Q: What sequence folds into this?
């Protein structure tokens, strides 16, 4: 009885080790790309807010340049970005194939993505707390660290959750450069080889992954949020 | 103590729009330890003038001296240091939602460069002054409007400033809370001798805590008087806006109830006839 309702259980069990490898690759991609995106995207987003005409230290001309640069990177469909930056990828990780090679375009895509979230979340805090901090004689750095980033923390956590979910899906395109991952697994076995059961199994795994990230992220953000 | 000398603040217009002058050549001397009220309607320039004192809004021209120091002549760094001497509270409190009451107060000390060890103790002391010691660990969302404003007062006071600027401090709280907030401001002014400036659109507020009042209209200080003179009838407003602001009567034209019901009854009867096609 290895075939339940047309599902070849034996085949799935046979592929389980490979599923494990694929899941591992997805985790590696996310665990490298997302923290780097947060690390670089946060200061970039803060700068986008701060240098804007209504920001803490307006630099309108430079702001316009950086702002459009962010838009340019954000405009690329991920698949095209993946190919377009192959020279950069080779320079950074020394190879253009494999999981390491996918991490580079993923990260490059994620940085401006997260920077926009940071900019948006900070802008929405309103002028009141900034004005209060200025009246207390805070430096710009203190306003960012002790006021803006603290007040925006729950929103930022929500943004990280959204970004992680998006990138679970983006990472599926990693297959194009042999990057692996669970999405790539679903495409290779399920889609290309018509192994529907295997594909569905992989998709269920991805659904579980996304649900876990979203539920976990939402709970954490709610715990941090003291507005209610 | 605070000397505002020929201060003007103009805002540039955006695109083709014309700019406008929020504060127009205002001079005002505020004696040490006094409470100065600034009253006016929305858009009269009173909040901008208040922001001119700590340079949250830098005046386009003129000078602001606090305790003999010309703030308008200072660089960013020196200005920040002077601001530790000038506390400020706001209509909407502007507390940090993700920090507890005591953390909000501590932040002011952190910005003033006070060492971490002393911050918590001093923040608790400041909360005691506004009788909120037991709410130290509450987040702002768990506090009432009056309590939030008291935390804001503690935050402004904790650095032991010489000046306290209050921007519509009671406009977002109910009347009973207004009285309580004003009592705290009056007590603090008297006990700590802090020079206080209160911007408001409510006559009651200036009458109850100010020593001197300036009436603002279209960016200018059009009337100045001592509250004592107003109360004793020695002061009479010279301007239309002054008379209006200092008058408790809102001058609403309104038919008394008895006549009004006769009116409506008659009108109602006429309408009924109309509907019936008579």
A:
């Amino acid at each position: 009885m290895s075939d339940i309702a047309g599902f070849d259980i034996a085949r799935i069990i046979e592929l389980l080790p490979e599923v494990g490898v694929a899941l591992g690759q997805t985790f590696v991609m996310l665990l490298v790309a997302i923290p780097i995106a947060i690390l670089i995207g946060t200061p970039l987003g803060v700068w986008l807010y701060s240098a804007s005409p209504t920001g803490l230290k307006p630099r309108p001309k430079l702001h316009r340049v950086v702002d459009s640069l962010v838009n340019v990177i954000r405009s690329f469909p991920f698949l095209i970005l993946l190919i377009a930056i192959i020279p950069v990828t080779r320079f950074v990780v020394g190879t253009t194939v494999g999981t390491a090679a996918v991490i580079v375009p993923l990260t490059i895509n994620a940085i401006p993505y997260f920077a926009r979230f940071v900019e948006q979340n900070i802008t929405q805090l309103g002028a009141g707390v900034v004005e209060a901090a200025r009246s207390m004689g805070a430096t710009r750095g203190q306003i960012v660290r002790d006021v803006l980033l603290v007040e925006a923390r729950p929103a930022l956590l929500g943004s990280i959750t959204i970004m992680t979910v998006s990138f679970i899906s983006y990472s599926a395109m990693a297959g194009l450069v042999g990057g692996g991952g669970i999405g790539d697994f679903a495409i290779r076995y399920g889609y290309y080889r018509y192994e529907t059961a295997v594909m569905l199994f992989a998709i269920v795994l991805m659904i579980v992954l996304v649900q876990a990230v979203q539920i976990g992220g939402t709970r954490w953000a709610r715990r941090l949020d003291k507005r209610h | 103590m605070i000397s505002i000398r020929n201060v003007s603040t103009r805002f540039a217009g955006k695109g083709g729009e014309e700019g406008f002058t929020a504060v127009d050549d205002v001079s005002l001397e505020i004696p040490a330890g006094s409470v100065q009220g600034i009253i006016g309607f929305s858009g009269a320039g009173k909040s901008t003038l208040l922001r001119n004192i700590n340079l949250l809004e830098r005046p386009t021209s003129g000078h602001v001296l606090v305790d003999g120091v010309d703030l308008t002549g200072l660089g960013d760094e020196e200005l920040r240091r002077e601001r530790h001497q000038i506390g400020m509270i706001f209509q909407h409190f502007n507390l940090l939602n993700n920090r507890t009451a005591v953390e909000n107060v501590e932040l002011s000390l952190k910005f003033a460069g006070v060492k971490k060890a002393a911050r918590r103790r001093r923040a608790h002391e400041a909360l005691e002054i506004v009788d909120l010691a037991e709410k130290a660990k509450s987040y702002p969302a768990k506090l009432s409007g009056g309590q939030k404003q008291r935390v804001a007062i503690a935050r402004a006071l904790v650095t032991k400033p010489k000046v306290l600027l209050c921007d519509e401090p009671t406009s977002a709280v109910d009347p009973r809370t207004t009285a309580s907030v004003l009592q705290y401001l009056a007590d603090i002014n008297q006990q700590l001798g802090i020079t206080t400036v209160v911007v408001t659109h409510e006559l009651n507020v200036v009458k109850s805590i100010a020593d001197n009042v300036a009436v603002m209209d279209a960016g200018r200080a059009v009337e100045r008087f001592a509250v004592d003179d107003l109360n004793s009838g020695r002061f009479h407003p010279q301007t239309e806006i002054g008379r209006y602001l200092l008058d408790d009567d809102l001058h609403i034209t309104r038919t008394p109830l008895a006549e009004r019901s006769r009116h409506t009854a008659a009108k109602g009867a006429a309408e009924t006839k109309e509907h019936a096609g008579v």
